[in-house]
Amino acid sequence: MSALIPVDVGSLVEIRARHPEAIAEAAARRVRRGLLGERGRLMIVAADHPARGSLGVGGDPLAMANRKDLLERLCLALSRPGVDGVLATADILEDLLLLGALEGKVVMGSMNRGGLAGASFELDDRFTGYRPQDIERLGFDAGKLLLRVDYSDPGSLETLHSAARAVDGMAERKLPVFVEPFVTRRGQDGAGPARNDLSAAAVTTSIAVASGLAGTSAYTWLKVPVTENPDDMARVMETSTLPAVLLGGDIGDDQDAAYEKWRGALQLPTVQGLVAGRALLYPPDGDVAGAVDIAVGLL
User: Fold this and answer.
1) What share of the chain is helix, strand, coil (3-state, %, to 5)?
2) For 297, which DSSP code?
3) Cα–Cα distance measured from residue 67 to residue 79, given in angstroms and rounded to the nearest whole number
4) Terminus of the chain with fewer CB atoms < 10 Å: N or C?
5) Are 281 and 288 in contact (CB under 8 A)?
6) What does each C-alpha distance from 65 to 44, 184, 269 come to in angstroms?
7) What is the three-class DSSP state of 225?
8) Which run of H or E residues covers position 235?
9) Which phi and psi (to 5°) does residue 49 adopt?
10) Percent of the chain with pLDDT over 90
11) First to last CA, the chain
């Protein structure tokens, strides 16, 4: 089990307080790479959960709240062979820039984080993170947006509209955008937590809706979950010709079962890689390097 890479929070705070311009300078000199490397596959570690107030992993509701711990886990994950990059919000990506952890990596900016977990307005998921012009200005490589559609929640229409315009904005700049679509449902009375429907029919519908967003799909990728029944994935992924990556999600205590689900779906022709966050950064056995290496091996 590899030890976490130590992070000096005091130094980060000192730079932020005295030299905030250092962030833009680090972005400007960052060594870039193409989206797809020689393997033609993508392994991205995700850490954009905190900005939506989603801090829990397994039974710990505040697992991702300790920023030093999160950064150390991210630095370790990014140091492992075969890891292509990271998906996160500005605060986290800027810390990683200052730490020098993004050299030669794919950097994906998380765009809409306004649908706070558990809020009454959760499905009105406004774009409170990166804008297309921010991603272009900083020389980042792609953006990602979350598209949850609840047929009973009018807020979903605003999310659909703003998501389409964000896809347009990214395409104008010839920047890839990863759309993470779900059909989402609440309880019968419209109350209760929002839950993503992972049935084959729901995932198929969400892919169809996401694929048709905006004035062009030329720069659109999909970020899709594995269906409840993994055997349905082959048929579900026939819904679109857009390139896709799998969403890792929170796998609970059964790592092996999750890996097996990913393994099968990663063989499908439109699936080009994997984006996983909590499953790799906070594995049940605590071995971040081991979890990342297994996921890389699935590709």
Assistant:
1) 40, 15, 45
2) H
3) 18
4) N
5) yes
6) 21, 26, 37
7) strand
8) helix 233-236
9) -65, -45
10) 81
11) 21
Of 146, 161, 11, residue with least CA distance to 87: 146
pLDDT at 216 over 80: yes
Q: How far apart are CA 185 and CA 181, in angstroms?
A: 13
Q: Tens of pLDDT along 257-298?
A: 778 888 989 999 999 999 999 999 999 889 999 999 999 999
Dist. CA 220–CA 164, nearest whole Å: 11
Let me know the angle formed at the C-alpha of 165 by 155 and 91, rounded to the nearest 5 degrees: 80
Joined together, the tokens standing for residue 227 give 């269906």
DSSP label at residue 185: E
Give the C-alpha separation, 212 to 164, whole Å. Answer: 9
3-state class of 1 per DSSP?
coil
3-state secondary structure 14-76: HHHHHCCHHHHHHHHHCCCCCCCCCCCCEEEEECCCHHHCCCCECCECCCCCCHHHHHHHHHH
Question: Which residues, including other chains, have CB under 8 Å from residue 233's CB and lie 6 or more apart?
Answer: 226, 227, 264, 265, 268
pLDDT for 197 equals 95
Q: Which of 142, 131, 209, 221 is nearest to 169 (CA)?
A: 131
CA nearest to 167, candidates 117, 211, 119: 211
**Farthest CA pair distance, the chain:** 54
Q: Quick count: other Cβ atoms within 10 Å of Cβ 63?
A: 17
Distance CA 182, CA 283 (A): 24
Q: Classify the C-alpha dihedral 253-254-255-261 as positive or negative.
A: negative
Give me the pLDDT at residue 141, please: 98
> What amino acid occupies position 132?
P
Of 66-80, 163-177, 242-256, where does mean pLDDT reach its minimum?
A: 242-256
